[in-house]
Amino acid sequence: MAVSATPAAVRMDVTVSDVTIPVPGQEQVRAWLVTGDDAGRPRSAVLWLHWLGHLHNDRSEFLPLAVELAPRGVVSLLPAGHFPWVPDPDGTGDDVARVRAQVDAHAATLDFLLDQPDLDPIRVALVGHDYGGMYAALLAERDERVTALALQACDAAWADWFATYWLRLGGAALVDYAARFAGLDPVEHVGRLGGRVLFQWAGKDTFVSEATRAAYAAANPRARSLLYDDAEHQLGDRAAVDLVGFLAEQLGLDP
Hints:
By secondary structure, this protein is an alpha/beta fold. It contains 7 helices and 8 strands; from the N terminus they run βββαβαβαβααβαβα.
């Protein structure tokens, strides 16, 4: 069924549908499916993974951009994240299991998106901000159907933010906790797509360090990296314009 959205996101030629997506062994995922009035022609797909922040801390974060792109032949899915939006990290091995489960849930939403009619299988993008970006990095490497990736202001390792903002870990305790995520840290999973990756960073970000930006650049030297000197962690309009431009280029969108 159609859902109500903010007035800025509503267009007569765009449909926003509230859907539930089954995930084996987990609760269903709520998502918005955004489509234009263009059935019957090849369309591209974007999966948008939202941030954990103080404004639009849910699947609504990217809704205006999804609506903007729908008339240009983009089918979008905006799922709700679960961890760490709902349960808090607890410092045990359960946190690793929760990260893996969230990746599995996002994989199920990508399957749902790519089951939509008239999609071009070689024009599929993932976009993620903050924790959404960390999950997007893992999913993009895991699923070769993804052809473009855009990451906004995300950390390099799961233990960093979990330990700093929830667990208050340091020293040997932090080292031991970080070791639990071996092989799962997002910065290790951004190389597959080479130049079809966009990194967007905020110059006044109090959550993402210059060292983190450098680690991502080293992990994928071919990626495009944009720094917005005056932006804070949530980024802003300039980053949104550049993101749309990147997607238009990578997905071959109509003007």
